[in-house]
Amino acid sequence: MGAESMERIGLRRKPKQERSIQRLDLILAAAAQIIAKKGVSAMRMTELAIAAKVPIGSVYQYFPEKAAIVKALFDQHASAIQTKTAAMFSDVQSLDQALDLVCDIIDWYYDSYHDDPVYLGVWMGTETDQDLLRLNIEHSGRVAGIFHDAVRRLAPDLCDEEMFARTYLFSHLIGAVIRLAAISEETVARRMLGEWKRVIRASLFTEAAPRAA
């Protein structure tokens, strides 16, 4: 992501003193509550300042615009997902176990976020902003990289360019499937997740077809 984009959606300054850290946390907590109730598009910076009980200048001191707040909240979710993925694949022993772990992560992902209006609101916010959408895609790439590195330790010959592309695609689609399931009726959601896990088991480690000459 370019410097101009990061300037727009990144923190203007990183708090160092405890009081400043607490103020930033108050702003993000208030933003999460507003997004859960109204969504990103309806949130206003003045409303956020009132909810956080801080001066409007304090909000702009850290966040140049609303997209930067969405990024900060998205980063919290993305970090949790990446940490969980890395922990689960840290000691994988076989390709079959790797597939089981992918399915376990899908269940964990859904169970953790399907009833979280903040996560859904933040995700919807990333879909309507080009820089935030790119951030979401980069997150998918990091998760794919964690999985790909784990598989490389088990089967280095399997980890070619086609395998990474497939892993990257599945990583991004897992997030999309989870979010679709999260806004669906529970029974339908579980069926969709089951179907998606069957697709992954059947195709993730399938050898790519030979390229035409």
Automatic annotation (TrEMBL):
Family annotation (InterPro entries): Homeodomain-like_sf, HTH-type_TetR-like_transc_reg, HTH_TetR, TetR_C_22
Keyword DNA-binding: yes
Feature: DNA-binding region: 44-63
Pfam family, one: TetR_C_22
Alphabetical list of SUPFAM superfamilies matching this protein: Homeodomain-like
Keyword Zinc: no
Superkingdom: Bacteria
Molecular function terms, GO-annotated: DNA-binding transcription factor activity; transcription cis-regulatory region binding
Secretion signal, residue range per the UniProt entry: none
Keywords, comma-separated and alphabetical: DNA-binding, Transcription, Transcription regulation
Domain HTH tetR-type: 21-81
Full protein name: TetR family transcriptional regulator protein
